[in-house]
Amino acid sequence: MDLLAVPALVLVFFVGASIGSFLNVVIYRLPAGLSLIYPPSRCPHCLTRLRKRENIPVFGWLRLKGKCAHCKSSIAPRYPLIEAITGILFVIVFWIFGISIQTLGYWTFLSWLLALAMIDLDTMTLPNPLTQSGLVLGLVFSTIVGFLSGGIVGAIGGFITAVIGAIVGIWLLDLIAIVASMILGQTAMGAGDSKLMAMIGAWLGWQLMLIGGFLACLTGAIVGIAALKLGRLSRRQAMPFGPFLALGAGLSLFYGQAMLSSYLQLFAL
To answer: How far apart are CA 69 and CA 65, in angstroms?
Structure first.
């Protein structure tokens, strides 16, 4: 690796970690109906406003040894973990796509996925403001990428591809939900999952979206079966599917094209 690239990657990591710090705010405040801007970051226990040196992503938590500097209450390690994960994702995207519109777009896409996954994990909901804005951004992104590669014709093609991906995504999840509900005799999937799948389709297109959906179902089934075997989940207990959809979409973004090419070569298509 070029040594000159190291400072750039470090900078990208801190940019991503800073975005991850804001995602922590979104994850906590959006489901609660609180403002994302005011009040500024504060201790969740004593509500004391964090000073600048305490609010440094990842390292601020490490410096404080996971405790509030004022009331000494423990601060959950998930906060620096989300910051670190976001930073790492930003570095991976930058490493693959370099300085490009794809990098900016996929930074946004992965940030939306991470926020939605954590909110669903916490509250079993996928907020419309995030899924709907993510869908719109996906349509815009696909249109811009198409325009940069093929002018007006490319922009139209990119937009149509994104729309098809969104439609196929929402129809596919709705169909799965209907069939699963009939088999289980209870609601198997929330409406938010279909909206998230539509968002993923707008960003990735219908082919990579299907791969992401398959990976989500596979990992969800494995985790669900393991949780049942370990007694962590009952047969009628609901399990959030958003995190698996987000994971499948992320894996499809990085590996989906290679998986699709291998599949087509395997069957000589």
So the answer is: 9
Determine how many CB atoms are found less than 10 A away from the CB of residue 11: 13
Q: Which residue in 217, 170, 167 sits closest to 196, CA to CA?
A: 170
pLDDT confidence of 183, banded at 50, 70, 90?
low
CA-to-CA dists, residue 85 to 17, 18, 82, 107, 111, angstroms: 8, 11, 5, 12, 10
pLDDT in tens, 31-90: 988 888 887 777 666 766 777 776 788 887 788 777 777 777 787 889 999 999 999 999
CA distances from 127 to 50, 116, 177 (A): 27, 8, 18
CA distance 104 to 47: 34
Angle at which helix 78-97 crosses helix 101-123, to 10 degrees, equals 150
Cα distances from 124 to residues 108, 117, 191, 249, in angstroms, run: 22, 10, 11, 19
| CA-based torsion, 201, 252, 19, 27: positive or negative | positive
C-alpha 140/C-alpha 121 separation (Å) is 28
Mapped onto helix, strand or coil, the DSSP state of residue 49 is strand
Distance in angstroms (rounded) separating the CA atoms of residues 221 and 215: 10
Cα 70 versus chain centre, distance: 33
- Which residues touch 188 (CB under 8 Å, ≥6 apart)? 176, 177, 180, 181
